[in-house]
Design brief:
The complex is a heterodimer of chains A (277) and B (388). Chain A has 277 residues and is an alpha+beta fold. Chain A has three domains: 42 residues; 122 residues, Uridine Diphospho-n-acetylenolpyruvylglucosamine Reductase, domain 3 (2-Layer Sandwich), CATH 3.30.465; 96 residues, 2-Layer Sandwich (Enolase-like, domain 1), CATH 3.30.390.50. Chain A starts with 7 loop residues before the first strand and ends in a 6-residue tail after the last helix. Chain A has a five-stranded antiparallel β-sheet with strand order 4-5-10-6-7. Chain A has a four-stranded antiparallel β-sheet with strand order 11-12-13-14, with helices on both faces. In chain A, strands 1-3-2 form a three-stranded parallel β-sheet, with no helix packed on it. In chain A, helix 7 runs antiparallel to helix 8. Chain A is 24% helix and 25% strand. Chain B has 388 residues and is of the alpha+beta class. Among the domains of chain B are: 167 residues, Ubiquitin-like (UB roll); 96 residues, Aldehyde Oxidoreductase, domain 3. Chain B is built from eleven helices and twelve strands. Chain B has a five-stranded mixed β-sheet with strand order 3-2-6-4-5. Classes of the chains: A alpha+beta (277), B alpha+beta (388). At the A-B interface, strand 1 and helix 3 of A face strand 1, strand 5, helix 5 and helix 9 of B. Strand 1 of chain A pairs parallel with strand 1 of chain B.
Chain lengths: 277, 388
């Protein structure tokens, strides 16, 4: 829709050109959320497109995703065959409520910065133990673990004017065995629970990342794969009954059920040797 | 204004902020307003095949291609389309021949009102073979609210549902929608698909309170917004009650509403109307109206509303008792006799919420100036099956 309160669009070629941040400014990435509802407290859009950040760069160290990389570009990424966790990229993209047409404009960084419980780019990058590079307006760049970024429903650690620049997925995690589980109340609807498990090639460990069911991602890390009872106990210790996200996309009790159910499925799947199904 | 440090989208050497556009092969320079989306930018230039449905990226009625890539034009900043090829439904047919997907929609009659068809066709024509194998997933960004999706699936399957209109044999034949050719090419005109010279826009301020009395409405700040033509409140309208239900039977649909009232009976009730030269000015002026409310006790449950001590919503005379306007009972034949004669009786109280069809074409009306006979012409969205 038209954003009728916006009086100016700045199109910098370098983020450094935006020195004085004030209320009323908004970074514009894909625009698919900004343009979806009135933004009456915004009067200036600052376009990130002309910064021309390369969308994807892969190396032996891993995959670097620019915040402005579109979901469609990430969906099409084909990496080395020993990055066994890469199918998670398409599985997470397919967990978007939004259609593929939105993927053509929406960005990976935009989904992360929206910081909604069901943001599948949050699920993906937290499960793959990403590091986010943030650009504050007046301080040097900082790197934060993805698990620490989202702090609650629609809240995160970004300071005023601070920019998410890029997401680094380490090759060591991209090489892990993945397991993926996802459900929503309606067919192709918004995620009620999205759980991802990863395990080292050598086997034995287990990392389970819980998203959508909780206001912010929860990660369970086991040096040695737990038993079903240990896993269940750990989930209940980390997430109290009222720690699930209760909304129209599922009650807290439903999301707790899905979390326990999918976590156990992931544990069992990764306990099996060999390729995933 | 739009600042571009990289001027690749600007006419070379131009000092103004115009950008170069290519819409359906037509080249022109234009300056979109800063927060403008591509959909309104296109429609402002008479490209009415691009529809406004939800205006929030969900319904897909505004789907166009940007360099061949389908996007929702309501979410795309207009300035970003500069320098790209924009293709709308009007540009899909080549050299007078329908695109195969337009023909398929025509053959399968994959529309009823046709309001979704332009966006549906622009999405469908862009799908890969892999996407066509999973239509519910590929078409989740397009909503149809009358045909349903079976006929759209038929279009993909190449099914022809229509028969020729042969004189003397038309009765009983499966004839196409008479507006079909216009619908699949984006030429069909809906209520808002018209450019009106000197058009003014009206926006409404709505109540945040469920029950309140309006003590005062200060309009000075609103009237000071450039482009604002007039502000209307309850003090400006005839004190004449009418029914919003539009039923012919006023026994069940009482005259209980003023165009603008000084009592608010639900959150969202209109409080004031602002008329301005632009939507932006009207919206801004609505935000600048200073309304003083006296908040009154409210009731939110129909059973509680019938209690003797419930806050009274309407006190206009003619109410049967309290908040009950009329108590109606009816039956066809004798229900009591029917129960007596029945082999088995199942008794239960059922309730259901009101269901809104959520048609895609937006509510809206265009009112013309009063003619000499005092009438005002005001076309409103029509029944879905008659669109032209």
């Amino acid at each position: 829709m038209n954003l009728n309160t916006v009086a100016e669009v700045k199109r910098p070629t370098s983020a450094d050109q935006i020195t004085q941040w004030r209320d009323g400014y908004a970074w514009l990435a894909g625009g698919t959320w900004l343009f979806s509802e009135p933004q009456i407290s915004t009067d200036t859009l600052i376009d990130l497109q002309q910064l021309n950040w390369p969308a994807l760069k892969s190396s032996s160290a891993g995959l670097d995703i620019a915040a402005t990389c579109t979901v469609a570009e990430l969906y099409r990424f084909a990496g080395p065959s020993d990055w066994r966790a890469l199918p998670l990229v398409q599985e997470c993209c397919n967990s978007f409520l939004a259609s593929f047409k939105i993927w053509n404009a929406a960005t990976v960084g935009g989904n992360i910065c929206m910081s909604l419980p069901a943001g599948p780019m949050i699920s993906l990058t937290v499960a793959l133990e990403a590091t986010y590079t943030l650009w504050p307006r007046t301080a040097p760049a900082r790197e934060v673990p993805s698990i620490d970024f989202v702090t609650g429903n629609h809240t995160n650690i970004l300071q005023k004017g601070e920019l998410l620049r890029s997401i680094h997925l380490p090759a060591s995690v991209l090489s892990k065995r993945p397991a993926f589980r996802h459900a929503s109340l309606t067919h192709l609807g918004r995620s009620a629970a999205l759980l991802i498990g990863t395990q080292n090639a050598a086997g034995g460990d287990l990392v389970i990342t819980i998203t959508a069911a909780t206001p912010r991602p929860v990660q369970l890390r086991f040096k040695h794969a737990p038993s079903a009872i240990e896993l269940r106990r750990t989930i209940d210790e980390r997430i109290p009954a009222d720690g699930y996200f209760d909304d129209v996309h599922g009650s807290a009790a439903y999301k707790r059920h899905l979390t326990r159910y999918f976590a156990e499925q992931i544990r069992a799947e990764l306990a099996q040797p060999g390729a995933r199904k | 204004m739009i600042h571009a440090d990289v001027a690749d989208a600007r006419p070379a050497g131009s000092a103004d902020a115009r950008m170069n556009y290519n819409v359906n092969g037509k080249l022109f320079s234009a300056e979109p307003t800063p927060g403008q989306c591509l959909r309104t930018f296109l429609r402002d230039r008479g490209v009415f095949g691009v529809k406004k449905g939800c205006d929030a990226g969900d319904c897909g009625a505004c789907t166009v291609w940007l360099d061949g890539m389908p996007i929702h034009s309501c979410l795309m900043p207009a300035f970003r389309a500069a320098g790209s090829e924009v293709t709308t439904i009007e540009g899909l047919a080549k050299d007078g021949a329908l695109h195969p997907m337009q023909q398929a929609f025509l053959n399968a009659q994959a529309f009823q009102c046709g309001f979704c068809a332009a966006g549906m066709i622009m999405t469908s024509a862009a799908l890969t073979q892999e996407q066509r194998a999973d239509l519910p997933h590929a078409l989740k960004g397009n909503l149809c609210r009358c045909t349903g999706y079976r006929a759209i699936g038929d279009a993909f399957a190449g099914v022809t549902e229509i028969e020729d209109d042969v004189a003397g044999r038309a009765c009983g034949a499966s004839l196409p929608n008479p507006f079909a050719a216009g619908i699949v090419t984006g030429r069909a005109r809906y209520t808002m698909d018209v450019a009106v010279e000197g058009l003014l826009h009206l926006k409404v301020l709505r109540s945040p309170h469920a029950h309140a009395r309006i003590r005062a409405i200060g309009r000075e700040r609103a009237l000071a917004v450039p482009g604002v033509v007039e502000v209307f409140t309850w003090e400006d309208v005839p004190r004449r009650l009418y029914s919003t239900a539009l039923h012919e039977d006023h026994l069940v649909s009482p005259d209980d509403t003023y165009v603008l009232d000084n009592v608010v009976r639900f959150a969202g009730q209109r409080i004031a109307a602002v008329v301005a030269e632009t939507e932006a000015a009207a919206e801004q002026a609505c935000r600048l109206l200073d309304v003083t409310y006296e908040i009154l006790p409210a009731v939110f449950d129909p059973v509680a509303a019938m209690a003797p001590d419930a806050p009274i919503l309407h006190d206009k005379g003619g109410e049967e008792k309290g908040n009950i306007f009329v108590d109606i009972h009816g039956e066809v034949g004798s229900v009591a006799d029917g129960f007596k004669a029945a082999d088995a009786v199942h008794e239960m109280t059922y309730s259901t919420s009101r269901v809104q069809h959520v048609h895609l074409e937006t509510h809206g009306s265009i009112a013309g100036a009063a003619t000499t006979d005092g009438c005002i012409s005001a076309p409103v969205p029509r029944h879905p099956s008659s669109c032209s």
